[in-house]
Design goal:
The complex is a heterodimer of chains A (284) and B (291).
Chain A (H helix, E strand, L loop, with lengths): L1 H6 L9 E11 L5 E12 L4 E5 L6 H9 L6 E6 L2 E2 L7 E4 L11 H11 L4 H14 L15 H13 L5 E5 L7 H16 L9 E6 L2 H7 L2 E5 L6 E6 L8 H4 L3 H29 L1
Parallel strand pairs in A: 3-8, 3-9, 6-7, 7-8
Antiparallel strand pairs in A: 1-2, 1-4, 4-5, 9-10
Helix pairs in contact in A: 3-4, 3-5, 4-5, 5-6, 7-9
Chain B lengths: L1 H55 L5 H4 L2 H14 L6 H32 L1 H16 L5 H9 L3 H25 L3 H9 L4 H38 L5 H10 L3 H29 L12
Chain lengths: 284, 291
């Protein structure tokens, strides 16, 4: 049902994100051309949570960098809010897989970075940063440096750093993959909660969440997009009808979840096998 | 009853044993520290003693090799009665002044150009080969040229210090700017940082640890530049002291000037280390970081 509202957007309100036949080709250091993404079509509706799964290294992250404006597509079009992406847009937030906190800044200063970069007065930026730190449960840690925090805490700071910018579009590149299993489940729940009340005017951000963990994808998303082995293109899209609000730990025990999991895995497993065989032939 | 008493006696014994073990460990650590210090002192005494004895018994030529006692006498004499070119303090100050001025100029130039070339690909592509050529030149041969250009005063020494300092700092700053974690840069750009802000608030802070490693080495280079400049031709400075001692076949004077230089260099190094610790509180494992 979420799927329906996303695809049949009313006239006048464009989908949050639209990729039309987007391709991205890189030149590798050895000079060869490497196509990371090929002929990709994908539409994400306003306030929709889309998870993208695919084999490792297939080009899922490249899709995000195209939407973010960090990279331009070699071919095709990328639209955000109906407009072609030219450079970085203020309404886009990006949570990286790796630690991308500034190690020489304190936690508070890290969260303030975005608003300050965008020219917000210091006092106001500090106030809003404190508010978000409180929401991620790190109010007591504002004077610490990132290296003094645990992996989960650093991820929370990264979430606060992103959410403080009030993003209409939230791009997440395997954000929790470096965390241990328990922290990961906890962070997923927190993410859903933050997402629910993320926008200042009450709406929800549109999310593209890249992961290689299918369980995580199903538990979080409205739709799961399965990518082919690289170069990445959309293989199949699965709507997830599980009711919200969801709790990650309990939702994965429901029979409906298990059924969807089996269905998507039969689609994804093939691509994973292709990637694996390619890797093996590389080694040989 | 007996069990209970055994327990009640046992606990304090275990505690005491624990305490005494900690004490033993602390004692062992103290002992080791003393041993290291003692061995160091012994090594110095043996070396200096051997030098003194060998020179006095004429196994080595005391005219060429001098001896520690004479070197010490020379330092005392310079300190109390001044050198031929004025007081010892003035010589030290001249050399330090030239080295410091050259160091600061060279560091500033190296950092600015290094970061600029690291950030602006066009500049790096255009200037790259020239910088490589200049770096390949053994820069100490420039010292006589600077003497011709800038005369006997401090300017020629500052210039030779600058060219020695510039390159290591430049290459480190360049490398530091190039090796900035690209996720940090991407994150800053996503958060709305302009190119200028990325340079000032991401590239420069992450390049500082690279730059600082070069600062340590390059202060030594600045001293070398100043001393060599003075040695070739000057009116004041420790390098001149070496040159004039050599000219009067006063080997004790050469060694004394060397000893003074070593102390000056060590003090400067200590100051730099102190500054570095203050600056890098955010770094993992750096002293003071966990406080």
């Amino acid at each position: 049902m979420n799927n329906d509202t996303a695809n049949a957007h009313p006239p006048g309100s464009a989908p949050a994100i639209e990729l039309r036949g987007a391709s991205k080709t890189f030149r590798t250091p050895s000079g060869a051309l490497h196509t990371a993404v090929r002929d990709l079509d994908l539409t994400v509706g306003q306030g929709e949570f889309v998870a993208v799964v695919g084999p490792t290294g297939c080009g899922k992250s490249t899709t995000l960098t195209l939407v973010s404006g960090l990279e331009e597509p070699t071919e095709g079009e990328v639209l955000v809010g109906g407009e072609p992406v030219e450079g970085i847009r203020p309404e886009v937030g990006f949570v990286f897989q790796q630690d991308a906190l500034f190690p020489w800044r304190t936690v508070l200063s890290n969260v303030m970075a975005g608003p300050r970069f965008r020219g917000e007065p210091k006092a106001r930026a500090r106030e809003r940063a404190r508010d978000w730190l409180a929401r991620v449960g790190l109010a007591a840690f504002e004077d610490r440096y990132p290296h003094q925090l645990s992996g989960g805490q650093r991820k929370r700071v990264a979430l606060a750093q992103t959410f403080v910018g009030d993003p209409a579009i939230l791009l997440m590149d395997e954000p929790f993959s470096a965390l241990d299993v328990q922290t990961r489940a906890l962070m997923s729940d927190e993410l859903l909660e933050l997402w629910g009340g993320s926008r200042s005017e009450g709406g929800k951000a549109s999310v593209v969440f890249v992961t290689h963990d299918l369980e995580e994808a199903i538990a979080l998303a409205d739709r799961v997009v399965v990518m082919t082995a690289g170069p990445a293109t959309v293989k199949q899209i699965f709507p997830i009808g599980l009711p919200r609000p969801r709790k990650v730990e309990s939702v994965r025990l429901e029979p409906e979840f298990v059924e969807i999991y089996r269905e998507i895995w039969s689609c994804l497993g093939e691509e994973v096998r292709i990637t694996r065989e390619r890797g093996a032939s590389h080694v040989a | 009853m007996s069990l209970e008493s055994a327990e009640s006696v046992g606990a304090p014994i275990a505690l005491k044993m624990g305490a005494s073990r900690t004490e033993t460990r602390a004692k062992a650590a103290r002992h080791r520290r003393l041993l290291v210090l003692g061995a160091r002192a012994l090594l110095l005494v043996v070396l200096l003693g051997a030098w003194e004895v060998l020179a006095r018994t004429k196994v080595i030529d005391p005219f060429n090799f001098s001896m520690p006692s004479k070197v010490w006498d020379q330092i005392v004499q310079w300190t109390l009665h001044g050198t031929a070119q004025g007081s010892l303090g003035e010589q030290i100050w001249y050399t330090l002044y030239e080295a410091l001025l050259g160091w600061v100029t060279g560091v500033a130039g190296g950092v600015v150009l290094g970061i600029a070339l690291g950030r602006v690909r066009f500049l790096a592509d255009v200037l790259g080969p020239y910088i490589k050529v200049l770096n390949a030149l053994p820069r100490i041969v420039l010292a006589p040229i600077f003497l011709i250009w800038f005369g006997l005063g401090p300017a020629s020494k500052v210039a030779s210090a600058v060219v020695l300092v510039f390159f290591p700092v430049f290459f480190n700053a360049f490398q530091g700017a190039r090796e900035v974690d690209r996720h940090l840069v991407a994150n800053a750009r996503i958060l709305g940082a302009s190119n200028r802000r990325v340079t000032l608030q991401v590239v420069i802070p992450s390049a500082t640890s690279w730059i600082f490693t070069s600062l340590h080495v390059s202060f030594g280079f600045a001293l070398i530049g100043a001393i060599v400049g003075e040695y070739i031709g000057a009116t004041k400075g420790i390098g001149l002291l070496v040159a004039s001692s050599q000219g009067t076949f006063n080997s004790a004077g050469v060694y004394a000037a060397m000893a003074i230089l070593a102390v000056v260099a060590l003090l400067a190094e200590g100051l730099l280390t102190f500054a570095e610790k203050r600056l890098f509180r955010w770094k993992t494992g750096s002293p003071g970081g966990e406080r």
